[in-house]
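INFO  loader      accepted 1 record
INFO  loader      residues=185
INFO  predictor   begin
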Amino acid sequence: MYGILEDNGVMEKQKSLFGEFIGIIFAALMLLLIVNTFLCQVFWIPTGSMESTLLVGDRLIVTKYDYWNQNPQRGDIIVFKLPRDSKRHLIKRVIGLPGEEIKIENNKLYIDGEILQEKYINNSIHVPNIGPVIIPANHYYMMGDNRNNSRDSRDWGALSKNMIVGKAKYRYWPLNRIGRIDDGL
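INFO  predictor   done
INFO  writer      dumping tokens
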């Protein structure tokens, strides 16, 4: 009889350990879901539209809480849902703010009639003239840093604030480029 009691004790311990393991896995998954839904998310860069700031293959941490109590600022690099296809995400730089007038003329970007100095841009860009365009309330004009190779607000218009996922804050891969992402302004 004592052997049976010992076996039941071992089986109960195994069941207890298995239950704890399942509980830990469940708690970890719930924590990951909460963090991914409300606080931050990881993304990777598949195209060269943000070169030379972000390169193909860069891995980023995007924080979702930055715009809970404040609005995006010019220069912020943000991830958002593509206006035409909300299942796809893009990453671009905030160029124009609500109510501003955007115009590109002779490869120079004007905001409310003044040239925007953009040190993050390659000087060999050649973009067609656009505008003037007035950005609606609660919308932002988004552009890639690699203007010759970027589909952005010039194609699909100003971005509604409700399409924003979060702000690109940190690069965690590749190892030689780990660090905070500079807004370039």
